[in-house]
Amino acid sequence: MARIAIGGFMHETNCFVPGVTDYDYFAEHRDRPPLCRGQEIFDWLPGAGMGLSGFLDAIGKEHELLPLVWTSGGAGALVSRDAFERCCGEIVGALSRAMPVDAIYLDLHGACTTEEFEDGESELLRRIRSSVGPDIPIVVSHDYHANVTPETAELCDALCGYYTYPHIDRPETGARAAVALETILERGLPSAKTIRKIPFLIPLTFQCTMIEPSRGIVEASKIGEGGPGGNIITLAYLAGFPPSDQFWCGPSVVCHGYDQDAVDAAADTLAAKIESLESAFATPELEPDKAVKEAMEIAKTASRPVVIADTQDNPGAGGTCDTAGMLKALVENDAGGAVVGILSDAAAAEAAHAAGENAEIEIELGGKGGIVGDTPFRGKFTVAKLGNGKFHCTGPYQGGRDMDLGKMALLRIGGVSIVTASKRCQAGDKEQFRHLGIEPEQQKILVLKSTVHFRADFQSIAEEVLVALAPGGHISDPRRYPYEKLRPGIRLTPLGPEWDGVNIS
Question: Is residue 323 part of a domain?
Answer without folding.
Answer: yes
